[in-house]
Specification:
Distance between the termini: 36 Å
Shape: globular
Bound molecules: arginine
Helix content: 40-55%
Number of strands: 13
Length: 593
């Protein structure tokens, strides 16, 4: 189904043609003077040059050709040559009814491609912290948007499970429990099935190992060598590594599930280890990789670079693989298993240079198909109210679990303050609202920008917040429930909710309908620009217009049944659209709050 702008553009273009001008001048956009009109066309200004005519004369010709068009309640030529347009209520109602009847509200899907979204990037054995929050929130939404547009999409968690942190844990464990069989070279039997640590022990081991490595050079050396031995396949270390994964991954999954984030692939840096050696050989053989100060590098600088892009390091001088190496091998693996048309990375924007190097190397060495699109959506930092990276009150790194817990508590207090509620239900509701508060607070900002995580603001029921959006949906649900209830008690009116949206009867109703009609543009825009905030902006406008309409209209008390059922149909559409949009953002609404 064509978007509302496309449909209006078609009508105006035809009129340009009819008036004797080229129809390509008929492009219509939203008005930047909403006080004067809803849409505008500036084509007469451009046409003036071609036809050596005053723009206003052209605009008047076109307006004349459209004077009795049923789509518009107003079309006027305004100096110096604008066409100001208002839609007729009939056309608008018809458009909304078409949306209602169409699959995905008439959204035109893109030609389907295979997309991998790489988001998450948590590091095994290190608890999730707020730095991982943005990747998870933005990536989940990007994945859902891509999927809704008709693409085949895979979300990959891309665990950090192959680096120095593994060597640190192994080394720390060795110094604490040297008698474990994993550290005995001569041991040839089966290793125990039970891991030698619990999750909370593991979470304590990593930070102390990390701290120790900063003070104790010998310890650090040992950890580096343990990392290398692990990567080489040392049996005992591999077994320990597996224990670390088995203990950490279920916890990661639980944390992500709480945030309504879920991945299709639980692959990690480790899973591509076997691909590294042949990949590196190939890069050498083809002459792309060369030695530089002992290390193996690929030159990726380009003449047009405005800042220096250093060569991409593939192997360190001791032969160890790096972060770039695993990312390149992962691209190779993805090509072999999924052959994607596009890979989107949702990672902290401070890793920008890393991805420039990886993408260029992948292209140069033919690791990806020539036509594979590689996108880096680098997000900004989540700051505290002081404008510095978000920390706990004590100044430490804020763990994700704790942050979510605090927001849930805040929501619980607010919800139970509002009205007496069953504690169980209030708990569930506060969890749902907390997720919305956190996610919307993040997603409503342009991803690339830093933003301030402001608990008071994000948890407020007023303003541009998640709870406000949910509150609006809950309000609609409650009106619809009451309506259904009254129908059930009425004798004759059986059957489902009314389906047909009627022509608007007041300005607020029309304003709501105009807002709703922008759905396709919002979703397509969010997809094309990889920008979930476009959907937030859309639903915030829809909610504002809905609430204005609600305050001005006595819906359930309306005695004219036809009027009432038109409104109910409009409410149903509003609710369905809002629910779809929050699903694309990755959260849901409770029934009551
Ligand atoms: N584990 C990395 C980190 O914590 C993020 C991984 C991002 N994804 C990737 N394919 N490099 O910094």
């Amino acid at each position: 189904m064509k978007t509302i702008l496309e449909q209006i553009t078609d009508i105006v273009s035809e009129a340009f043609g009819k008036a004797g001008y080229d129809s390509t001048y008929g492009k219509v956009g939203y008005s930047n003077r909403p006080d004067l009109c809803e849409y505008q066309c500036n084509g007469a200004m451009a046409a003036a040059k071609t036809y050596h005519k005053a723009p206003i004369a052209i605009a008047e010709d076109v307006a004349g050709a459209l004077s009795d068009n049923e789509a518009f309640s107003m079309i006027s030529a305004v100096p110096p040559g604008f066409l100001n347009i208002r839609l007729s209520k009939g056309f608008l109602a018809k458009y909304l009814n078409e949306m209602k009847e169409s699959e995905c509200f008439g959204l035109e899907k893109s030609a389907p491609v295979k997309i991998i979204v790489d988001y998450g990037g948590p590091n095994v054995a290190k608890p999730l912290h707020v730095g991982h929050l943005r990747a998870a929130i933005i990536g989940e939404s990007v994945k859902r948007i891509c999927r809704y547009m008709g693409n085949e999409v895979i979300g990959d968690v891309h665990l950090g499970d192959w680096g120095l942190q593994m060597g640190l844990i192994i080394t720390e464990l060795k110094s604490r429990q040297p008698d474990l069989p994993y550290f005995d070279d001569k041991y040839t039997g089966q290793y125990p099935e039970e891991p030698p640590f619990t999750l909370s022990e593991l979470e304590e081991i990593y930070p102390s190992a990390s701290a120790r490595s900063k003070e104790d050079e010998a310890f650090r050396e040992e950890a580096l060598s343990a990392t290398k031995q692990l990567q080489k396949g040392e049996r005992g270390y591999r077994a320990l590594w597996q224990h670390i994964i088995d203990v950490s991954v279920p916890d990661l999954k639980r944390n992500y599930a709480e945030l309504m984030v879920d991945f299709d692939w639980w692959k990690g840096e480790s899973s591509v280890d076997p691909l590294i050696a042949p990949m590196v050989d190939d890069m050498k053989k083809k002459g792309f990789a060369h030695e530089s100060e002992g290390a193996l590098v690929v030159d990726v600088a380009e003449e047009s670079d405005t800042k220096e892009v250093p060569p991409c390091m593939i192997l360190k001088s001791d032969g160890a693989a790096l972060y770039t190496t695993t990312d390149l091998a992962t691209l190779l693996d993805r090509r072999q298993t999924f052959d994607p048309d596009r890979v989107i990375y949702v990672v902290d924007k401070r890793q920008d240079m890393h991805f420039v190097q990886v993408f260029r190397t992948a292209r140069k060495c033919g690791i990806v198909r020539e036509d594979t699109k590689l996108d880096f959506l680098g997000f900004g930092t989540m700051n505290g109210k002081d404008g510095k990276p978000f920390k706990t009150r004590e100044g430490g790194v804020m763990r994700l679990e704790r942050l979510i817990g605090e927001i849930k508590d805040t929501m619980y207090k607010k919800i139970t303050e509002n009205h007496p509620a069953d504690p169980e239900e209030a708990k569930k509701t506060s969890e749902t609202v907390a997720v919305a508060a956190i996610k919307y607070g993040d997603l409503s900002n342009q991803a690339t920008k830093d933003y301030i995580f402001d608990v008071d603001k994000f948890t407020s029921f007023e303003g541009n917040t998640g709870p406000y959006i949910l509150y609006t949906i809950v309000r609609i649900k409650s009106i619809l429930a009451k309506y259904t209830e009254s129908m059930r008690s009425g004798e004759e009116q059986k059957g489902g909710l009314p389906r047909t949206v009627a022509e608007a009867r007041n300005e607020a109703e029309k304003a709501l309908m105009l807002e709703i009609s922008k759905f396709s543009e919002a979703v397509t825009g969010a997809y094309e620009e990889i920008a979930p905030h476009r959907i937030c902006a859309y639903i915030y406008d829809v909610c504002n217009e809905f609430n204005r309409f609600y305050h001005e209209t006595r819906i359930l008390a309306e005695e004219d049944e036809r009027k009432k059922s038109g409104w109910i149909a409009l409410l149903v559409l509003t609710k369905e659209i809002l629910e779809k949009c929050i699903d694309l953002l990755g959260f849901e609404a409770p029934d009551r709050m």
